[in-house]
Write a structure and sequence with these properties.
7-stranded mixed beta sheet, FAD/NAD(P)-binding domain, 5-stranded parallel beta sheet, single chain, binds NADPH dihydro-nicotinamide-adenine-dinucleotide phosphate, alpha/beta
Length: about 325
């Protein structure tokens, strides 16, 4: 049987690294699985952003990947053992818990799940090429860079309307591109959108290409009307995807309680339905989804794990 660890953390975004910093400083000698690029996004969603200007402590802003490197270094400095592997299976049916990664088994008294969520994307090559260069999935993070510019928001749910409304604080014009002729969003959100003079809605439409990867910036979008098939081009300076998020909980299905959308259910801070398994960050939060709130919840999970281990030894 492999050594029994105190705490294994799965995921390397702000939540996972913060949990690691706290667990390491509590002398728990945590293990943290950073994941491989193919299984998600090591470092989390901030690896896909450029400037982060809303993380406290960086008045001049910081690049997303650089911020995550700082988190990583801080976790390593206090003795977190970092492993670049994807966890491929978990067994929470008995304690200590068992995890499989890279063909090996690991056992631990506690597990902190911080695998995050991934924004859904349309899947266009031009969209991928321009992520962080005018294509974003987070208006709160990147809206500020579009002062007096024209932007598109793709999606028809509450997030799309929330993002569009937020963007009108900066942008001169926001066009919401909806693939059907109705919104999925709640009535109250729709009323807010229709009352906002800076927002226009383009129905039955989708984006088929974003211009212009060659210039490394967004200059416009090729739109297709899904009813008529007509193709047109629209100039814009930024494009915000708001077509939902998917929590990274595939390996936890049937192993831990998830909500209808697949997010890990937590109560009293970071506690899941299994004693000794904790969750933090976007994997359990579809509402706030900010680096700072994820980091805060990572701290909570580490403190909860520490308390759990103490109570076991009492
Ligand atoms: P939703 O799943 O509610 O909406 C996703 C939207 O994106 C839908 O309009 C969907 O279209 C559209 N869409 C999906 N895939 C594509 C695609 N490939 N191309 C074009 N459009 C696409 O996700 P949200 O992120 O908006 O919301 C998630 C949850 O969070 C919801 O429960 C929501 O109510 C909640 N929320 C609440 C807020 C609030 O109350 N203030 C704010 C933000 C979110 P279609 O309708 O045709 O499927």
């Amino acid at each position: 049987m492999p050594d029994v660890k105190n705490t294994i953390i799965i995921g390397s975004g702000p939540a996972g690294f913060t949990a690691a910093i706290y667990a390491a400083r509590a002398n728990l000698k945590p293990f943290l699985f950073e994941g491989l690029a193919k299984g998600g996004q090591p470092g989390g969603q901030l690896m896909l952003t450029t400037d982060v200007e809303n993380y406290p402590g960086f008045p001049e802003g910081i690049q997303g990947p650089e911020l995550m490197e700082q988190f990583r270094k801080q976790a390593a400095r206090f003795g977190t053992e970092l492993l670049r592997e994807d966890v491929t299976n978990v067994d929470f049916t008995k304690r200590p818990f068992k995890l499989s990664a890279g063909g090996q088994d690991y056992v631990s008294k506690t597990v902190i799940i911080s695998t995050g969520a991934s924004a859904n994307w349309l899947g266009l090559p031009s969209e991928k090429a321009l992520q962080g260069f005018g294509v974003s999935a987070c208006a709160t993070c990147d809206g500020f860079f579009f002062k007096n510019k024209e932007v598109l928001v793709i999606g028809g749910g509450d997030s799309a309307i929330e993002e569009a409304t937020f963007l009108t604080k900066f942008a001169s014009k926001v066009t919401v591109v909806v693939r059907r002729d109705v919104f999925r969003a709640s009535k109250i959100m729709q009323d807010r959108l229709f009352a906002n003079k800076k927002i226009e809605t383009l129905w039955d439409s989708t984006i088929v290409e974003i211009k212009d990867p060659a210039q490394r910036k967004v200059t416009g979008a090729v739109l297709k009307n899904l009813k008529t098939g007509a193709v047109s081009e629209k100039k814009c300076d930024g494009i915000f995807m708001a077509i939902g998020h998917t929590p990274n909980t595939e390996i936890f299905k049937g192993k831990i309680e998830l909500d209808a959308k697949g997010y890990v259910k937590v109560h009293d801070g970071s506690l899941t339905n299994i004693a000794g398994v904790f969750a933090c960050g976007d994997v359990q939060d579809f509402k706030y989804r900010q680096a700072v709130t994820a980091a805060g919840s990572g701290c909570m999970a580490a403190l909860d794990a520490e308390k759990f281990l103490e109570s076991e030894h009492a």
